[in-house]
Amino acid sequence: MRRGSILTLLGIGVIAGGVAAAVAVLLPWLPTPASREAGRIDFVFWFVITICIVIFAIVAAVLLYSVVYFRAAPDDDSDGPPIHGNTGIEIAWTLVPTLLVTAIGIVSAVVLAQNDAQGSDVLNVDVTAQQFAWTFTYPDARITTATLRLPKGRSVLLTLHSKDVIHSFWVPQFAQKEDTVPGLTTTLHITPDRLGTFPVICTELCGLGHALMRSEAIVMEPAAFDTWLKKQSQAARSSNAAVSGAAVFSDNGCGSCHTLIAAGAAGKVGPDLDNLPAEAQQAGKPLQAFIHQSIVDPNAYVAPGYPQNVMPQSFGSSLSARQLDALVSYLVDSSKKG
User: Fold this and answer.
1) What is the percentage of the chain residues whose pLDDT exceeds 90?
2) Helices in 86-125 by DSSP H: which ranges?
3) Can you tell me the mean pLDDT for 57-73?
4) Domain boundaries, the chain
5) DSSP E strand stretches across the chain
6) pLDDT score recorded for residue 242
7) In the list 65, 124, 320, 335, which could disulfide-bond 276, CB 3.0-4.6 Å?
8) What is the helix (H) or strand (E) element at residue 12, kind and residue range?
9) Are 120 and 154 in contact (CB under 8 A)?
10) In the structure, what pLDDT confidence band is assigned to residue 196 with cuts at 50, 70 and 90?
């Protein structure tokens, strides 16, 4: 090829690569990483994108150059010359993609191995998914909350369980997803490295309230996290029935589906719990008995306008007698105040 042709190809390639790079860099394709694992995953993403941009620039340059300089004349209907091809080029376009795919595989394998490796001081958190809420238990402190709190810079092992159907745990800023499967235990390793509050989302269509199955992951300074964990543990040991009822309501995700002013809940999947006295009257039962029955046997009476089989029917066995009594008392008191 002549020097002018090479310069033209290079010019077209630089322009095409520049446009592709601008689209890749200037548009916010990914959230800002908030964990070491997310940073490594982003590296793999940009490693592959860089390779794709280079290949795109080469292909675009050759195509545009060929269209412009080797196009047939308007009155040329003849066949092109028969050619065998170029063995060297064929070897190159077989060998180069092989090397590139191998490089991507090696980088990905290294990142996966690093992301699965746990640190020395691991914080264990049990994650429970159910229609339609997340709950997080810290077994060492023996507390359960509806919000995931994590210390910055510490290795965290999430052990995931499901009470009913398949759910999927995802925090976009952590860049990892993990399914929760009934009957199976799955795990996810995270090392948060940025302070902030990030959404916890279910990414597996799990039923009517799937879109509302959200919580928060709050990354805190280690000292602040230790203080919070200690206070929560002490409060759990010394809580009275009313406080326990509020905790049971929060920890079991009731606010994801129901509205209750006292709890600051605004769920719309199930009936408004501030209207429980009216519902009990319509069902023809005393308020306390009605609330108890609605928790342990939710299909016994379903408020008009709401479908059956939406509320989990497992609370009668998953809640202890003390938790159940505390929750009933809390709802009775809250609905009367409302």
Assistant:
1) 38
2) 87-116
3) 86
4) 3-68+87-116, 123-237, 239-337
5) 123-130, 133-138, 143-145, 148-151, 156-162, 167-171, 176-180, 186-190, 196-202, 214-220, 259-260, 265-266
6) 47
7) 335
8) helix 3-26
9) no
10) very high
What would the two tokens of residue 64 be?
């545009």
Q: Look over the chain and give the mean of its residue pLDDT values, rounded to a whole number.
A: 87
Tokens of 117: 């490796």
- b/e burial code for range 3-12 (CB count within 10 A of at least 16 → b): eeeeebbeeb
The rounded distance, in Å, linking the Cα atoms of 285 and 39 is 56
pLDDT, position 240: 47
Rg (C-alpha) for the chain, rounded Å, is: 29
Extract the tokens encoding 49. Answer: 């994108």
In words, the CATH class of domain 123-237 is mainly beta
- The residue-averaged pLDDT of 90-95 equals 90
Task: Tell me the C-alpha distance between 225 and 139, whole Å.
Answer: 15
| 71: amino acid identity, one letter | R
CATH superfamily for 239-337 is Cytochrome c-like domain (1.10.760.10)
